[in-house]
Specification:
globular, triose-phosphate isomerase activity, 307 residues, binds 2-phosphoglycolic acid, alpha/beta, eight-stranded parallel β-barrel, Triosephosphate isomerase, PLASTID ISOFORM TRIOSE PHOSPHATE ISOMERASE, two-stranded antiparallel ribbon, single chain, Triosephosphate_isomerase_AS
């Protein structure tokens, strides 16, 4: 058994003001690397189960990636429109570009629409790109930037991603800013270094944090079925919130949602949601099934029970 100390948050929100020392078995799928993270929290340990360290509303995004056809997306939209979703959750789905307009006009207003990418500046002679202005024109409210598939498959670097984020935010789009380490980086004990460097690249250029949601998505967990344990995710989320506190401000650390992504599904979302620094999810595969996505959205209830 490994002793886990849940520190006391200094932020307000949907949470209790205290506790927690508890013994938790290490559930890491890679126990030998689970201990290679270093915690840098300055929060003092205290005494009760804490449901939410941040003060932001629970946020669940569905990243449909390069999936779907007119038929399957029509069915998915219809399932989402008839799903019963808890009120106190911001819900966003991110269809492929070609279906964005169709989804944004047929989907209930309860769910907002996000793009999966945007160009670094105003549109023009940039073949194959989509501008922020065009996204806004069709009612899109968010854009996912820095996703690991853009970083590691397409080759986008921190500076390029930062430029996109700054432009999108300046034009009024919300940004789901993704960060996360590769398996070899975790195994080398570099998880925090990698995440902080990616975070800094956003922090260096963004005009404000009002419209940013941070998605921590360990690359080894994305699309692999190897979800991070609640403890592994909480550990990084806590470190990210502390980084924001030290490098941006206490207010931003409190109100910025830090959501987890990587093999989240209807069965594991409840335990993850109970972690105090997990403010929601970015969901890939499981967001393609309306009822399962609704279950993940509604995992906010686990948080309330824990509070
Ligand atoms: P996954 O993808 O849920 O299929 O692992 C998550 C993501 O890439 O955002």
């Amino acid at each position: 058994m490994e002793t886990v100390v849940t520190p006391c948050p200094q932020f307000s929100g949907l949470r209790r003001s205290c506790p927690t020392f508890h013994n938790a078995p290490s559930q890491s799928f890679l126990p030998h690397i689970n201990s290679q993270l270093r915690l840098s929290s300055s929060r003092k340990p205290c005494r009760a189960v804490v449901a939410m360290a941040g003060s932001g509303k629970f946020f669940v995004g569905g990243n449909w990636k390069c999936n779907g056809t007119k038929d399957s997306i029509t069915k998915l939209v219809s399932d989402l429109n008839s799903a019963k979703l808890e009120n106190d959750v911001d819900v966003v789905v991110s269809p492929p570009f070609v279906y964005l307009d169709m989804v944004s006009t047929s989907l209930t207003d309860r769910i907002e629409v996000s793009a999966q990418n945007s160009w670094i500046g105003k549109g023009g002679a940039f073949t194959g790109e989509i501008s922020v202005e065009q996204l806004k024109d069709i009612g899109c409210k968010w854009v996912i930037l820095g996703h690991s598939e853009r970083r590691h498959v397409i080759g986008e670097d921190d500076q390029f991603i930062g430029k996109k984020a700054a432009y999108a935010l300046n034009e009024g789009l919300g940004v789901i800013a993704c960060i996360g380490e590769l398996l070899e980086e975790r195994e080398a004990g570099k998880t925090f270094d990698v995440c902080f460097q990616q975070l800094k690249a956003f922090a260096d250029v963004v005009p404000s944090w009002d419209n940013i949601v941070i998605a921590y998505e360990p690359v080894w967990a994305i699309g692999t079925g190897k979800v991070a344990t609640p403890q592994q995710a909480q550990e990084v989320h806590l470190a990210v919130r502390d980084w924001l506190k030290k490098n941006v401000s206490e207010e931003v650390a409190s109100k910025t949602r830090i959501i987890y992504g990587g093999s989240v599904n209807g069965s594991n979302c409840g335990e993850l949601a109970k972690q105090e620094d997990i403010d929601g999810f970015l969901v890939g595969g499981a967001s393609l099934k309306g009822p399962e996505f609704a279950t993940i959205v509604n995992s906010v209830t686990s948080k309330k029970v824990a509070a």
